[in-house]
Prior knowledge:
single chain, five-stranded mixed barrel, disordered C terminus, about 10% strand, alpha+beta, elongated
Amino acid sequence: QIESRAQMSMLPRLKPACFYDLVVEIALVRPGPIQGDMVHPYLARRNGLEPVSYPSAAVESVLSRTLGIPIFQEQVMQLAVVAAGFTAGEADQLRRAMAAWRRTGKMGPFEQKLHAGMRARGYTDEFAARIYRQIQGFAEYGFPESHSASFALLAYASCWLKRYEPAAFLCSLLNSAPLGFYAPAQLVQDARRHGVEVRPVDVNRSDWECSLEPSDTQPAVRLGLTQVSGLSAAVGQAIVAARASGPFTGAGNLARRARLKRHSFKQLAQAGALASLEGDRHRSYWQALGVEEPWSLGVAPLAEAEPLLAPPTEGEDLVADYASLGFTLGRHPLALLRPHLDKRGIAPAERLYRLPDAARVCVAGLVTHRQRPGSAKGVTFVTLEDETGQVNSVVWRDISARCRRILLHAQLMGIRGELQRQGDLVHVVAAELLDYSHLLGRLCHSSRDFR
């Protein structure tokens, strides 16, 4: 509920300090409050930039918990009763009309009744007009307070788990994927930056799903066999069942006991899941090529001399990790590319937080999100990730049109633009998009080979 780009931009401005602040946060970033011009007045009052005032005690009784700004659908209905003399039935008709307004356009009779009722009770025409504009905003999508409170409870519990039980939180998220805004790669990177130990897939230790293992200060997360791309649940569960009688002693022992087909064996080798049995990926893959089927024939494997295989480079392991798992537990790809990026003046994400507002910057990272909300008027929000963190950027419509191919297809994107800072909120407004995706194909080479 609070991990979208819009919500993440709102959090440092609203600065929730208690549970009810989360209730307001979740309801505030919705089309209704935004189009009803309620967001900025609420933030101004919350931050002490604008006085909180009420035209009457009756209105204060309805709006005091939201600083005089109607944020919830229930408040609009209560205002119609206390300020305009609506009956409970008429307020419910107003709610129904709000829900159908875009389809039917039938809000006119209520506008007249609201104005007349408020005028008769001493409220100004300006106040009545503002309330009606806000009601029209709610017709776009207003949030009931009860719904927002339910979602806030989930957000609060999730935040508590992430803060105090980060390993269990990550483990649960990975086992529930796909969900939310983040792929496993971003979840793992974030957890590791917060001190969570993540251990690789291992046929002798991994369950089908991710699990927790004892560690020094807090549990470690053991990746499950489910993280191996293409590996079926039946195969994963067969491995776990076969291991119940004792650990596997080698690749051939694993293949015979779990009755693995060559294809599944190769998937495990490519994912590095055989490292405890055979060592590096090259040796594991060689063993996979020698798997004979079906094992039910009971043919004993032939003894062969071990080939002289060079171990994979760090870059080769990294590329294989992304191909088979979707992420890596090794260094981030941009850590390997950083010397090359430094030569081009490309700043790491962490440096942005030390730069002043309006600084000209050039950043680059793996594209983790591209979002173009319907309410953003053609603006695209792009999130990049490097080895030090994330960069949030804003791409205006004209830049999107000029750099459309890069915006839609680049895996490793560069952005030149202007840094904009508002308190703790930092983002880059793009002036130019660059495609560095070709560099990813050269990760298997040493840094001296980059040009």
